[in-house]
């Protein structure tokens, strides 16, 4: 089982960028924690960050036939990208959307969300800890998928 973690624009600036909103953790630290949880659960994990919409679409497409779960923070593209939304629908892999900040209580433009309707679930406003919650949620989804596959194979 493999989870791919995809981070959108400016998330490479975590730890520097607006610390009052996004906290002090760097992206590498968040990824290190996720890697530990994956290892403890015998799940493969890969990380990808890009500031470019098309590269994010390409990485989501590459998950097809390769990954069983996607954890995605599309960052500002959340509010604009039909292309990223369509790529999630296209690959049809359970996707959990993460937002470090609570996008519902910020500027009006952040209330538009192109991505949430095609995701299995969203984790919003828990700070960097949201990635850990998303990992736990994704492991649960994967366990359920595996159990369903096993019972189908037995039938
Ligand atoms: C964000 C919220 C977005 O509105 C913003 O553009 C980001 C980060 C978050 O994690 O809170 O870059 O996705």
Layout of strands and helices, then pairs:
Blueprint: E1 2-7, H1 19-22, H2 27-40, E2 44-49, H3 53-62, E3 69-73, H4 82-91, E4 95-99, E5 121-124, H5 129-154
The structure holds 1,3,4-trihydroxy-5-OXO-cyclohexanecarboxylic acid.
1,3,4-trihydroxy-5-OXO-cyclohexanecarboxylic acid binds next to loops.
Can you walk through the features of this model?
The protein is of the alpha/beta class and 155 residues long. The protein has a single domain, classed as Dehydroquinase, class II (Rossmann fold, 3-Layer(aba) Sandwich), CATH 3.40.50. Helices cover 41% and strands 17% of the residues. The protein contains 5 helices and 5 strands. A 5-stranded parallel sheet has the order 2-1-3-4-5, with helices on both faces. Strand 3 (69-73), helix 4 (82-91) and strand 4 (95-99) form a beta-alpha-beta unit. The longest helix has 26 residues, at 129-154. It binds 1,3,4-trihydroxy-5-OXO-cyclohexanecarboxylic acid. 1,3,4-trihydroxy-5-OXO-cyclohexanecarboxylic acid is lined by residues 10, 73, 75-76, 78, 99-101, 103, 110.
- Overall body shape: globular
Q: How would you spell out the order of helices and strands?
A: EHHEHEHEEH
Structural Rg: 15 Å
* Strand ordering within the main sheet: 2-1-3-4-5
Named CATH topology: Rossmann fold
Kindly give the count of domains.
1
Number of helices: 5
What are the bound molecules?
A: 1,3,4-trihydroxy-5-OXO-cyclohexanecarboxylic acid
What's the CATH C level?
A: Alpha Beta
């Amino acid at each position: 089982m493999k989870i791919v973690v995809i981070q959108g624009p400016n998330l490479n600036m975590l730890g520097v960028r607006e610390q009052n909103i996004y906290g002090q953790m760097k992206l590498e630290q968040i990824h290190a924690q996720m890697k530990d949880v994956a290892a403890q659960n015998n799940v493969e994990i890969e990380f990808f960050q890009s500031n470019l919409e098309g590269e994010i679409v390409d990485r989501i497409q590459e998950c097809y036939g390769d990954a069983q779960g996607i954890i995605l923070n599309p960052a500002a593209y959340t509010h604009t990208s039909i292309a990223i939304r369509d790529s999630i629908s296209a690959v049809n892999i359970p996707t959990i959307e993460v937002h470090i900040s609570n996008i519902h209580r910020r500027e009006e433009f952040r209330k538009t969300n192109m991505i949430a309707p095609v995701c299995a679930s969203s984790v919003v406003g828990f700070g960097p800890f949201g990635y850990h919650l998303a990992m736990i949620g994704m492991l649960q989804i994967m366990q359920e998928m595996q159990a369903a596959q096993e019972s189908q194979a037995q039938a």
